[in-house]
Amino acid sequence: MERDPAIAAIVMEALRQSCEVFYLTDADGAILYVNPAFERLTGYSGGEVLGKTARVLKSGSHSPEFYREMWATIKAGRIWRGRLVNRRKDGTVYVDEQRICPIKDETGAVRYFFSIRHDITREMQLEDQLNQSQKMESLGLLAGQISHDFNNLLTIIIGSMDLVSEELPPGGVGAKLASEILRSSRESANLIKQLMVFARRQESRPVEIPLNEPLKELKVLLDSLLGHNVSVAYSLAEDISKTRIEPEQFKQAVMNLATNARDAMNGNGAIMIRTFEAGPEGLPAGVPPGRYCAFELSDTGPGIPPEILPRIFEPFFTTKPKGKGTGLGLSSVYGIVSQNGGRVIAANRDGGGAVFTILFPAITRA
Ligand SMILES: Nc1ncnc2c1ncn2[C@@H]1O[C@H](COP(=O)(O)OP(=O)(O)O)[C@@H](O)[C@H]1O
Ligand SMILES: [Mg+2]
Hints:
The chain is built from 9 helices and 12 strands. By secondary structure, the protein is α+β, with helices and mostly antiparallel strands. It folds into 3 domains: about 5-120, Beta-Lactamase (2-Layer Sandwich); about 125-200; about 205-365, Heat Shock Protein 90. Strands 6, 7, 8, 9, 10, 11 and 12 form a 7-stranded mixed beta sheet that branches. It has a 5-stranded antiparallel beta sheet with strand order 2-1-5-4-3, with helices on both faces. It starts with a helix and ends with a strand. Adenosine-5'-diphosphate binds near residues 261, 299, 312, 319 and 326. Adenosine-5'-diphosphate binds near residues 261, 299, 303, 312 and 317.
């Protein structure tokens, strides 16, 4: 049946129209044929890769042993299955799930290889996102329980110490120690309050407003917080839909982001604040389809090192020296945004610098 030229032509046409990426190489791995799905995925035309090996797609993410094991498997006439991180012509990286199969001749010698693969970048992103939100969820439960109990205990300590210090003769050693205890306890209470924000244990009184409103109210405070050498540019979409948020909490989140931007830029640089509407298309992975009011704050700092990106929203995660950072700024942002039904996403701009995007569901009236 396979020798039937009509069927062979249909098989060729099937490969041509397939949404799965297919390519054929000789026994040395030189590419003989790629289908249009390959061209769409990688950005390379058939003409550009013919005669070359799949090494053109190498991203540098895998070790030489990884490729040696792959070659050893297929050279031995076995099928290789696995995930490969590859690079498109435009330099962007994607994840491929693929099989490479040997084609043998009558004598059993491997003559060709073919590979079927599909892009699983989006699935991987969703998986990461799910792991990430599960991690934040369990941290939130833990933080919620601890902060609640601690807060109650601290309330008792502070209340009792207040009474004790009233009983002590002023100016004496006892009074001095008592005020020291009170100061530390209040500081602890302050830390615990921030942890409660992360755990969404604080009260929230959301109202329907456009995001621009609290931002305009914040302008003066933000300028004085950031100092003369940090400029803030605004680009606010005037006709933006309303959203349901607690304005004071949202302002707190913006201040935390701005403070971090200032720190990252060592007090010298520019912050851009933008509002706009987003969706239903082109939303980040894991964000349910819909229409969103978006807030974006970007800076001209060095950006966030990719290896710490998955951890920055964890409570107490900080790269700052002791006494400078608490690691509670972004966890508070996370808590505030989630409590108000939104999402916060951290990334780096192409030209360097960090960008934080917050999405709140837009109130649309049909
Ligand atoms: N705009 C930014 N640019 C670069 N890194 C940032 C930025 N914002 C936050 N980070 C990183 O995230 C970490 C956690 O931030 P945060 O939770 O506010 O804690 P803290 O500011 O106390 O360190 C920071 O220590 C820093 O490493
Ligand atoms: Mg901070």
